[in-house]
Write a structure and sequence with these properties.
four-stranded antiparallel beta sheet, 13% strand, 8 strands, alpha+beta, 68% helix
Length: 431
C-alpha cells in the first residue's frame, strides 16, 4: 500500500510538471486596460528597479543611523615566544605562551553623522517619489499602446470588410470584360486597388504585432506569451473625462517633477549644513576589555590592564581654508539647485498651457477625423453600388477606396494624438 501511494504521488507530480511546462510554452494573458496597468506595475522591470532603489535608500538610511550607535568588535590571539626569558633587574622573567581575548566597544558622534542621517531620510523620500513617477510613466505607456492596438484593430477590420467589396467588384468587372460589357482598363484599375488595399491591411497587421511586442515588454511577460485585450475601444475611450481635465488647475506640489526638484534643492541646502559641521568637534568614547591566560604556566610580566575606558574630543583648529572652500562650494551648488527649481516651475506652467492647447486641438481633430471616416465609408459603399449598376467608373471606386485608406490613417493618428495629449495633461496634473 505504501509503495502504491508513493507511486501515485510521483505520477501526479510528473503530470503536474508536464502540464505546467505545456502551459508555459503556449500561454496567453487576457487583460483589461486596468489589469494591464496593474500587471505592469507588478512585473515591469523598470518599476522593479525603482523599488530596489527605494530599498537601497532605506538601507543607506539605517547605515547612517547605525554609525552613531555603539560598535563592538572582538578578537582572539595566541602568542608563543619559544621559551624566551626576559631579564629584569638581573632576574629572569619567563615569557610563557599566552592566549588573549579582547572586546572593544566604541561610539562616535559628530555633527556630520547627525546631518547624514537626516539627508538619508530625504534621499529615501526622493526615491519614493521617483518610483511613483516611474509607475506613472509605465501606466501612461501601457494606456497609449493598449488604445493604439484597439484603434488599429478596429480600422483593419473596416479595411478587411472593404477588401471583400473590392474583390467582389473586381471579379464582377473581370466577368464583364469577358463578355465585352466592360473594358480591361477598368479591371486593371480595380486589381491595383485591391493590391493597394491588401498592402494597407498587411502593413496595419504588422503595426499591430509591433505594438503587441511593445505591450509585452511593458508588462514584463515572455515573448511567447500572447497578450489578449479584453476591452473594446468604446469601453475605455472616455472623451468626456479627458475634457474635464481642462477645468482642473495645476497644483505644483502634486507634480512629481516639481516635488523632485524641490527635494533636490532641500538636499543641496542640507549639504551646506553638513559641510559646515566639519567645524564642529566630534566625540568618541570607548571601552576595552583584555584578558590573558597562560595555559597553566607561571604568569609572566603582564602590563595589559583588563579594563580600559576612554573619551576623546576632536576639535578642528586649522585646515588652511579647505573647510571654508568646501562650504562655499556647497553654497554655490545650493544656488544652482534653487535656479533649477525656479526653471522647473516655469517649465511646468508653460507645459500646462501647452498641454491644454494640445488636448483641445487634438479633440477637435479627432471629432473631424471620426466623422470623416464615417462619411468616407458611406461614400465608398455608395460608389460601389453605383459601379455595380454602371453609374460610376472604376476610377471613381479607386479614388474613394484610396480616400478610405487615407481616412483610416488620419483617424488613427488623430486618436493617438488625443490619447497622448490626455495622458500628458493627466500626468502633469497627477490625476
Amino acid at each position: 500500500m505504501k509503495r502504491l501511494i508513493i507511486s501515485l504521488i510521483t505520477l501526479l507530480s510528473c503530470a503536474s510538471i508536464m502540464a505546467q511546462e505545456a502551459v508555459s510554452k503556449d500561454s496567453s494573458l487576457v487583460v483589461s486596460l486596468d489589469e494591464a496597468k496593474q500587471y505592469a506595475v507588478e512585473h515591469n522591470r523598470t518599476v522593479q528597479n525603482a523599488g530596489l532603489s527605494v530599498k537601497q535608500a532605506e538601507a543607506a538610511r539605517w547605515q547612517a543611523i547605525a554609525s552613531m550607535l555603539p560598535q563592538v568588535s572582538g578578537s582572539l590571539g595566541y602568542t608563543n615566544m619559544c621559551g624566551y626569558e626576559m631579564s629584569l633587574a638581573g632576574m629572569p622573567v619567563p615569557m610563557n605562551p599566552t592566549g588573549e581575548l579582547g572586546i572593544k566597544a566604541t561610539m562616535t558622534i559628530s555633527g556630520q553623522q547627525i546631518l547624514g542621517s537626516l539627508i538619508s531620510d530625504l534621499a529615501k523620500d526622493m526615491q519614493d517619489v521617483a518610483k511613483a513617477k516611474t509607475i506613472q510613466a509605465i501606466e501612461a505607456n501601457v494606456t497609449n499602446v493598449y488604445v493604439n492596438i484597439l484603434a488599429t484593430q478596429e480600422t483593419v477590420d473596416l479595411l478587411r470588410k472593404n477588401m471583400v467589396n473590392l474583390e467582389s467588384l473586381y471579379k464582377m468587372t473581370e466577368n464583364a470584360v469577358k463578355v465585352g460589357a466592360a473594358e480591361q482598363i477598368d479591371a486593371d484599375q480595380l486589381s491595383v486597388q485591391v493590391a493597394t488595399m491588401e498592402s494597407a491591411i498587411n502593413n496595419t497587421d504588422r503595426a499591430i504585432e509591433v505594438l503587441k511586442s511593445s505591450l509585452q515588454l511593458l508588462l514584463g511577460v515572455d515573448a511567447s506569451t500572447e497578450v489578449v485585450l479584453s476591452n473594446k475601444l468604446d469601453d475605455i475611450l472616455n472623451v468626456d473625462e479627458a475634457m474635464k481635465l481642462l477645468s482642473t488647475e495645476l497644483v505644483l506640489e502634486e507634480n512629481y517633477d516639481y516635488t523632485l526638484s524641490k527635494q533636490q534643492a532641500e538636499l543641496a541646502k542640507k549639504q551646506v549644513t553638513m559641510k559646515a559641521m566639519e567645524y564642529v568637534p566630534s566625540i568618541t568614547g570607548f571601552y576595552q576589555y583584555s584578558g590573558k591566560t597562560y595555559f597553566g604556566e607561571a604568569e609572566g610580566m603582564n602590563m595589559t590592564p583588563p579594563n580600559t575606558v576612554g573619551v576623546t574630543v576632536s576639535v578642528p583648529i586649522w585646515s588652511s581654508g579647505v573647510r571654508a572652500a568646501g562650504v562655499t562650494e556647497k553654497k554655490l551648488a545650493y544656488q544652482a539647485a534653487q535656479n533649477s527649481l525656479a526653471d522647473t516651475e516655469d517649465q511646468l506652467r508653460v507645459s500646462d498651457r501647452q498641454y491644454r492647447y494640445d488636448l483641445v486641438s487634438a479633440y477637435d481633430n479627432y471629432q473631424i477625423q471620426k466623422r470623416n471616416i464615417e462619411v468616407t465609408q458611406r461614400v465608398f459603399d455608395n460608389m460601389s453600388k453605383k459601379f455595380e449598376y454602371g453609374y460610376a467608373s472604376s476610377l471613381d471606386v479607386t479614388n474613394t477606396s484610396t480616400n478610405l485608406i487615407t481616412a483610416q490613417q488620419n483617424y488613427i493618428q488623430a486618436l493617438t494624438s488625443m490619447v497622448n495629449a490626455h495622458i500628458n495633461l493627466k500626468n502633469l496634473l497627477n490625476k
